[in-house]
Amino acid sequence: MLNVHVRINEAGSGKPTPVRVRVSTVDGTHFAPLGRSVEFPVGRNEVVGGHLNLARDLWFTIDGACEIPLPAGVPLRVQVTKGPEYRPVDETVTLGDGQLSLRLAIARWTDPHADGWVSVDTRCHFLTPHDALLEAAAEGVDVVNLLATVQRFPAQNGTAYLTVPNLTAFSGQVPLLERDGHKVFVNTLNTHPVLGTVGLLNSHRPVFPLTFGGEEPDDWGICDWCDQCGRKGGLRVWVDAFEPTGGLVGGEALIAAILGKIDAIEVNPGPRKVPLLPWVYRLWDAGVLVPLVGGSSKDSNKVPLAAMRTYAKISTAEPSWIAAVRAGHIFATSGSLINCTVSGSEIHATARSLGPFDDLALVANGRIISRVKAQHDPEAGCYRAELTERLPDAGWVAVRCHSAMGAFAHTPPVAVGSPIRDPGAVASLRKLIEQTREWAEQHGRYVNSKRRDQLLARCVEAADKLGGAP
Fold this sequence. Notes:
By secondary structure, the chain is of the alpha+beta class. Helix content is 17%, strand content 37%.
């Protein structure tokens, strides 16, 4: 075995650049950089960061260069990635006797930064901030939101201690770490086991308690968390929206969304019990136009950072990605890049991706009104789809692309004409509100009855705001 110095240069600058790298033989034997191991845990909160096990393919994040013990005279597959804006490298090399270096280059195929776009991962957990910064650079993501959350840690004495990794690194509205344009912010994920979960980003301070309910009384509220975070410009993101928990779908997080206390709904690559989009479309059909943002929800070495991400358009009017979310100048994506413009009575959209996707669709008021199949563009070396369609007279429109293999991208809803409230969507949401009211009355464990009354009052307020039959 030779200790081979491996360096990956960015083709444009000619300088070493952080990447994710995989070196293996044809029979699947993997090789790890010095200081790393090909055996590492993949459970939740188990030494997260710096390496990935993706369907048994082992990847390592490096800061542009590393040394790897490698055999000579054996064909080696070398793979390198750097997020959706770079063409992956996939080469077979055979090292000669005594060869101690390997040089490769990775090149951009597109540069959204040139048009003012920045990429954001709205949620990950348990990485150290320094690992998060390295992975941000290696995955080509500009902003990482590392959220401290309560986690039980099983100690050797048999006790599962409650811990909050990264809470002492809380940075709120300023980056904790920053390098070469990549930033890591540390904020919190606040959770109730039944009423919902919210990521509180760009918060001026931690909002406590980080959890309530479960073994503790229910004397707090999702709306309380959102109010505190929002007072000084925080961004409130509904996490795992509409997932059934404790018999409820929506819970108080839905009520917070209807009352304008939620700024965005997260879409992530994790498994779900129920599909997200049908419920989101009902919410939009009821007139509650909360945008989608993309977050990886990375909490183990099985999920790449920014596997789902948000692209936000920065401008003079929206000088930060937070402002762009509020203005709806964003899209959530697993890799496809969407450009959408509205001019007069028409909407024009394009989607491009290195990987294949099935189609690009225009969704209006919960229904697909136009769809085009993606085609491979040999000149650009990517898959592409484009559509132009007349806008509906009223309601909302959004653009999305997807594939059966998992590719996904979605823009926020754009209001057109006069607003509409679909009676069926309103009735569905009112039913969820009623279930939350019943939970508060029959199952909530309140020491202070005023807290129950407060949630009941918010149920009434949200139902009234939706309208429809009581």
